[in-house]
Each structure stands twice: as C-alpha cells, then as structure tokens.
Amino acid sequence: MASEEQTKRLLSAGQAAELLRALAAELDQGRLGAAVLADQALLELKQALKEKDGKTSLELKLKYRGPAAQAAPKSAGPAPRGYKSLKKAMAKSWGQLEKTLAQGQTPSPELTRLFVEQSRRMVGFAGKGDEHYPAYLALVQALQTAVEAGALDQARQAAQDLAQRKKACHEQYK
C-alpha cells in the first residue's frame, strides 16, 4: 500500500539546514520515514532548482531503489495522523524514556528510535512551535547518540535538556 506524507512550512535558512541534517542522520541509520532500508540501499535523488518571478525554489525527491524496505518494528505502532494523536503517542514514548533513565538504565535503541521518529513528524506541523524545532531536533539527536553509545549520563543530560525545551515550548503554545 502506498502512502504519502507531505509538509510545507516557512523556515529560516538555519531551520531548513537543521531539518536536512536530521534527514541525513536518519538516512545514515538506514531509515527513511517509517521504513527500514535494506543493506546497501540505493536512493534515486531528483533535484530541481528553479527561479521564477524573483523567487528561487529547490525541490528534492528521494526514491528508494533497492530490495523491498522492511516495515518499522511492530513496537512503533500505527502512525498517528493528526497532531493531537501524535503528541499523545509522544507523551507515552517520552514517559517510558524518562522512567527508564530514572531507573538508572539506558533506554532501548528501539524506544529511542520511535521517539526520534515521532519528533521528526512533529516538527512537520507548522505553527506549533516552529522557532523551537531546530534546537529541539538537535537535543533529540543528542539523546539518540547517547543511547546508541550506551552513555547513561549523557542520555540523562540530553533528556533533562529536552524536558526544559519542552516546558518552554508548551508554556508558549499550550
């Protein structure tokens, strides 16, 4: 079954760069959206740079050209469509991450990947805290890096920083 997810947002150059870095990190990990790419996956990249009426636009399109992609692990559950359901799912994942860290354990890579994926989907919603998104994504990446390295103290610090960022955003937008 084919699915399509498109987002359109107004970003500063720095925010666009951060979003592209997050996509690059996802590809480095062998993931594209909810799909896990096969080893040695090939992607077809189409790039169009257009100038019209004094406006410049860049369109990027990535197509997976390789063995069939595996579905995301079952633990990921169905992908919430709306912002509200996504935020509820994120609250669950975040709660599990915090609980695990409070118990002195490093969260599982699967749980962390789920939270990272949810976070990346969240930043696709315009008008919900856009100015917080680049810093938020950087902290999410720091958490994922610490978990993958098994660095409990760094994971705790990243989670603490994320909690502060979340609080600041929610104070402004809730």
Automatic annotation (TrEMBL):
Classification of source organism: Bacteria, Pseudomonadati, Thermodesulfobacteriota, Desulfarculia, Desulfarculales
Protein species of origin: Desulfarculus baarsii (strain ATCC 33931 / DSM 2075 / LMG 7858 / VKM B-1802 / 2st14)
Protein name in UniProt: GAK system XXXCH domain-containing protein
Top-rank taxon, per record: Bacteria
GO molecular function, one term: heme binding
InterPro entries reported in the protein's UniProt record: Cyt_c/b562, XXXCH_dom_fam
SUPFAM superfamilies (alphabetical): Cytochromes (SSF47175)
Gene Ontology biological process terms, A to Z: electron transport chain
